[in-house]
Amino acid sequence: MYDTIIIGAGPAGLMAAREIIKSTSNFIILESKEEIGLPLKCAETVRAYGFYELFGEKDHGFVMNKPSKMYFRAENAEKTINTDFIMLDRPRFEKWLSRPVAKYIQFRTLCKDIIHHDAFVEVITDKGVLKSKSVILSYGCNYEIQKKLGLAKDSPLLIPCYGGIFKYKGLKRDTLYFYYDSKEAVALWIFPKDDRIANAGVGQFPKEGKHNLRKSFHGFLKRYNISLQGNLTFAGSYPSSGPIRKTYADRIIVCGNAAGQVYGGIGEGIYFSLKAGQIAGVQIAQAIKDNDFSERNLKNYENNWKWRIGKILEAGRVFNNLLIFGIKHNMADGALKLSKREEVLDIFLSGKISTRIKLGYYLLKLTGALKKDRKGMPLVFRLLIRLLSRKA
After folding, report:
1. What DSSP designation does 237 have?
2. Which of 77, 113, 166, 246 has minimal Cβ neighbours within 10 Å of its Cβ?
3. CA diameter of the chain
4. CA–CA separation, 362 vs 368, rounded Å?
5. Which stretches does DSSP call E strand in 139-278?
6. Are 14 and 97 in contact (CB under 8 A)?
7. Is 83 helix (H, G, I), strand (E, B) or coil?
């Protein structure tokens, strides 16, 4: 009987384990992969203030670059904002993160189900059945267990992606590049890791009709005269519809991608997984000390992550919904052109949403436009949205 079982050895699970080991050694981390950090399936960025909050401003060998700008382009509209991010060598970072808890990781073990009992939890794996007083779910984008437990009503909106490591020319090392295309409903990212290598790729947003992502990626490069040499070598997806309805139950906590704790629209998840994992680990460590794994006690985890990162994640959900609406109705370029730099900066970094963006968002929500693909939106409605975009 373990004190806790952590399912998933990504940023959230490893961060939780680093907290739990301070209180107990009677735990195990289950990981389906064969190695920490591999294969790479993400763009490797983390917001600088969040990274420094967790690990300090030390010169870590896995920190590859420190971009200070974000560049956005949608068709003929473009905007640059000043901000601070960190480009990681994610496999090296996760190996470093795992060092204090490496001996507790059991690789090549797939969690198939969880059976909830009054006094313990059974974790059903492809290697057998384990019992524990508590469980931390941090195993990526699979939501079946969360739905079975009533923590999530539906599966998340998953954004499929292809990415890879490329040589680049003609771009600035200090800038993270985002390109959005309404016609094919895709987003392109290019994140320089040093003076010649970048993590780049493409993601698909919901829209009628299917598009070949690999073809869209190369078409994008040609259209904007972007020079990248290399191949798309990894595929993945990220949840883009915001946190699940509830992230705790008796003896169970959910964090990271498994909880939908990702900034929608751009797919930023590393910092939010790390922070939520840390909060989850602290809460489970306290539950072990108190021998209280009740839903009432574990609710403190949700209260704490919402206090720490909930406002920013909510802003990400709003941004994602507006982005999808703009892409569906070919309005992404107009919205970007008319938005203010400080508005863009606020919505990404502090979770602050300006009054006019709130007004436009709630108007769209009230009319049901965010839920339905209304091809024939009344002209007056479209003009009203544009007016709200222009109004200072």
Report:
1. E
2. 113
3. 64
4. 10
5. 158-169, 175-181, 186-192, 197-204, 227-229, 234-239, 248-249, 252-254
6. yes
7. coil
252 SS3 class: strand
Q: What would the mean pLDDT of 366-386 be, rounded to a whole number?
A: 56
Indicate whether this model's pTM tops 0.85: yes
Q: Beta strands 105-106 and 175-181: pairing type?
A: unpaired
What is the per-residue pLDDT for 389? 52
Judgement on whether residues 265 and 380 belong to the same structural domain of the protein: no
Among residues 315, 334, 372, 297, the alpha carbon closest in space to that of 134 is found at 297
For residue 118, give the amino acid letter: D
**Token pair in block for residue 251:** 């003896």
Element (H, E) at 328: helix 311-328
Element (H, E) at 147: helix 144-148
Could you give the CA distance from residue 279 to residue 268 in angstroms, rounded to a whole number?
18
Domain end call among 260, 275, 309: 309
129: Cβ–Cβ under 8 A, 6 or more apart, which residues? 122, 123
Three-point CA angle 195, 200, 204, nearest 5°: 160
Q: Could you tell me which residues come within 8 angstroms of residue 103 by beta carbon, excluding any fewer than 6 positions away?
A: none
Domain count, the chain: 2
Range of the domain at 370: 314-390
Helix axes 270-290, 295-305, angle to 10 degrees: 150
Q: What is the CA radius of gyration of the chain?
A: 21
Residues 102, 32 share a domain: yes
Integer Cα distance of 190 and 166 in angstroms: 9
Mean pLDDT of the chain: 89
Q: Are 164 and 191 in contact (CB under 8 A)?
A: no
**Tens-digit pLDDT profile for residues 70-124:** 999 988 889 999 999 999 999 999 999 999 999 999 999 999 999 999 899 999 9
Note the pLDDT tens digit of each residue in 59-82.
Answer: 899 999 999 999 999 888 899 999
Same domain, 322 and 380: yes
